Amino acid sequence: MYKSGMLIYNGNAGQKEVKKTLSQIIGPITLAIPSLLLLKTEKPGDAERFCRQHGEQMDIVIVMGGDGTVHECVNGLAALETRPVVSILPAGTCNDFARALGLPLNSKQAAELIAADSIERAVDIVKSNDRYFDNFWGTGLIAEASQNIDEQTKGTFGKLSYYVSAIKSLSDQDRFTFTLKMEDQKSEKEAVMILILNGGFIGTTEFPVSTIEIDDGLLDVLIVREAGFVLLKEILTAKTTMTWEENQTSIEHFQTASLTIELSSPRLVDLDGEHYKGKIHKIELLRKHLRVLVPNITADEAEKTN
């Protein structure tokens, strides 16, 4: 189906495991893609550079890594005029974007989709100033929590490290003011966290908001006015999306395709787990901007997996 492809993998991951995985997937992939370019990242920015340099010449780009590697590749591909299909082989701690897409979380099984019965799904990507994100944008509590995560702890305990960090951040709630602009509307607000969701998973946990869809042309915006252990408990223990949405008392929730957030002062911002700093953020959803390989499952099969 694809004549040319590029496989990008994280060179900073555990080398023994990477070599084992590559040995398992290279054979089946090369049978499906006659011309395959294999590229290893050695430093931050490599994956993005590879995609910018070679993306338009490829039919498919295969990304083997975690959310950070996927984020880099999205930023390398999103600005291209001609964008290849993307195949994600999850190999990180959380793999949140892969979860949102319903992909197998095993790299070998995900690789089998390339030659198996898969379909191309057009998904939304979001532009924030001159950067892009696929899963979420956050500032305040979420950015502080993710910055405080110890990488060794993250690798050992996975999503638990996010929760521990979040609990530590909650002890010192940093309120901030900002201006929200949407179309002709402008309002001054105060919050401890702003979260903009395209995908529905953060730290492997599915966020309990029923309207989140990765291809509906809308972002789900959550403005947290108050924070504390009650909020954390609501988010992490919500049994159903409806229960959480009915009981939420300290979160403003709405949907939009574009907005501008002007913070009172430059703050740390988290895009898919990668950190940036800024004051004014113009955010615009790009409808069905990337095509991604996903399993071709029937409605009955989808029901069985839920």
From TrEMBL:
PANTHER family, alphabetized: LIPID KINASE BMRU-RELATED, SPHINGOSINE KINASE
The top of its lineage is: Bacteria, Bacillati, Bacillota, Bacilli, Bacillales
A Pfam family that the UniProt record links to this protein: DAGK_cat
Q: What InterPro entries does this protein's entry cite?
A: ATP-NAD_kinase_N (IPR017438), Diacylglycerol/lipid_kinase (IPR005218), Diacylglycerol_kinase_cat_dom (IPR001206), Lipid_Phosphate_FormReg (IPR050187), NAD/diacylglycerol_kinase_sf (IPR016064), YegS/DAGK_C (IPR045540)
- Name its co-factor(s): Mg(2+)
Q: Could you identify this protein by its name?
A: DAGKc domain-containing protein
**What region holds the DAGKc domain?**
1-132
User: Which NCBIfam families does the entry mention?
Assistant: YegS/Rv2252/BmrU family lipid kinase (TIGR00147)
Q: Which GO terms describe its biological process?
A: phospholipid biosynthetic process
Q: Which domain of life is it from?
A: Bacteria
